[in-house]
Every structure is written in structure tokens, then in C-alpha cells.
Design a protein that fits this description.
Blueprint lengths: L3 E8 L8 E5 L24 E2 H11 L5 E5 L9 H10 L3 E6 L4 H7 L8 E5 L7 H5 L5 H14 L4 E7 L9 H8 L5 E5 L18 H13 L4 E3 L3
Parallel strand pairs: 2-4, 4-5, 5-6, 6-7, 7-8, 8-9
Antiparallel strand pairs: 1-2, 1-3
């Protein structure tokens, strides 16, 4: 049961068009070595706020907030996530859900329900042939395809795909496969890997992606027919 979370009271960057708070849920099924949120992947977790306390803080701040971002970790890792989303929406807050795409059945149950996210952000980690290499675990790529299809079916116009470009793991020959995956979907926002705190400490001092590299990725995806955009962080 989800009882502890991380909380950022205000963000102007993470929910398009809204002043929002961020809730971080602990636990994730992936082991991306370059992940910059390691405190929400493996214990001991950095989820230092009781969920009941976080909800009370959000209740008191709902007049200044336009929404809340639920991220992780992987929020859909938790079977009781719908209860949390419904409580947030009951506060009058729009909900943005971030997901890595490995739980399409749980995502589908949210569509059309009282827990349905108002905005959905789905990570596209790589082309399907390189998913395991980039995420550090064996991934059922059919689940990724299902999640992308659900996004296009239920959240088109209020969603985005996201790609973090990691030098040493990603190469230009993966881009056609990525473009095929996201065809007819929402925009894909591309950011670059940043050195620093990472899940695998050996990645902490790896070279960050340069702005020119990430811009080139965006341009290549556009040439392949994708609605790709640069996201500065």
C-alpha cells in the first residue's frame, strides 16, 4: 500500500500550463543505470512524507495550485494508485501522471474512470531492440507498444512522449525505430542525460549530452516524420 511519498510543493515546469505540486511515489520495475531519481527506485527510499500529510498540504494549497504531477519511481507500480488519483482530483486539482510504459493494463483501467489523469507523460526509453540495454532489465516490449497505443487512443491532445538521450547507450541508428513507435502520437520531448546523482554510481561522472547532440536528435526525428521538440532543463 502506498503510504509514503516525496513532495515538491511548487513547480512551474513539470505540468504544461499549470502551477503544480509534485508527488514522488517510491518503487520502480526498471533499473536504468542513468536514472536521476535513484531515491525513488530502490530502498532506502527518499519518500519522507506520509501520504496523509501530503494530501493535507495539497488541500491547503489547492487555491494556488492548478494541478499535481504524480511521478516516481513508477506510479503504476502501485496497485492502489487509482485511489490516490481520485483523492487528488477530489481536491479540484488536475492530475498529470508520468509512467515508464510497462503497466498498460493498469493504465487502461484509469481511462474513463474517476481516476483518469488529465495529462499523461510516457517515457520512450529507446527503440524496442535496445530497451533492455537502456533500462537495465529485460522488458516485455509488447507492453510498451500497448501503452503507446493507449496513449494515442485515450489521451491524444493531452499527453506527451519523452526521451532522455544518453550518450553511450543511444545511437542515431535507433531513431527510425523510435520514430515508428511514436507515429500518430503526441509530441515527443527530448532531453539530454545529465551527469550527477544516478542509480548506478558509475554513471555519476559520465559525459552529459550536449545541447548540440540533443538538437541533432530532435532534427533527425523530425526528418523521420515525428513531432519532436527540444526540452531545455
Amino acid at each position: 500500500m502506498l503510504t509514503q511519498v516525496g513532495l515538491v510543493k511548487t513547480t512551474l515546469l513539470d505540468f504544461p500550463g499549470r502551477v503544480a505540486a509534485i508527488l514522488f511515489t517510491p518503487g520502480c520495475d526498471l533499473r536504468c543505470p542513468w536514472c536521476h531519481n535513484p531515491g525513488f527506485v530502490l530502498p532506502p527510499f527518499e519518500a519522507d512524507v506520509r501520504l496523509t500529510d501530503a494530501l493535507e498540504i495539497l488541500r491547503k494549497r489547492r487555491k494556488v495550485l492548478g494541478g499535481v504531477v504524480v511521478t516516481g519511481g513508477e506510479p503504476l507500480f502501485h496497485e492502489d494508485l487509482p485511489d490516490l488519483l481520485q483523492k487528488l482530483k477530489g481536491l479540484g486539482l488536475a492530475v498529470k501522471l508520468d509512467t515508464n510504459g510497462t503497466y498498460p493494463q493498469r493504465l487502461q483501467r484509469l481511462a474513463g474512470s474517476a481516476s483518469e489523469p488529465d495529462y499523461l507523460a510516457v517515457d520512450v526509453k529507446a527503440d524496442l531492440a535496445h530497451y533492455g540495454e537502456v533500462t537495465g532489465v529485460s522488458v516485455r516490449t509488447d507492453l510498451i507498444r500497448q501503452t503507446l497505443a493507449l496513449t494515442k487512443q485515450f489521451w491524444l491532445g493531452r499527453s506527451e512522449f519523452r526521451l532522455t538521450w544518453v550518450p553511450g547507450l543511444h545511437t542515431a541508428d535507433q531513431l527510425p525505430g523510435i520514430a515508428e513507435l511514436i507515429q500518430d502520437g503526441p509530441p515527443i520531448y527530448v532531453t539530454g542525460f545529465r551527469s550527477g546523482k544516478t542509480l548506478d554510481p558509475r554513471w555519476a561522472h559520465r559525459r552529459s549530452a550536449t545541447r548540440d547532440e540533443v538538437t541533432a536528435v530532435v532534427e533527425d526525428l523530425v526528418r523521420l516524420g515525428a513531432d519532436a521538440r527540444l526540452r531545455e532543463v
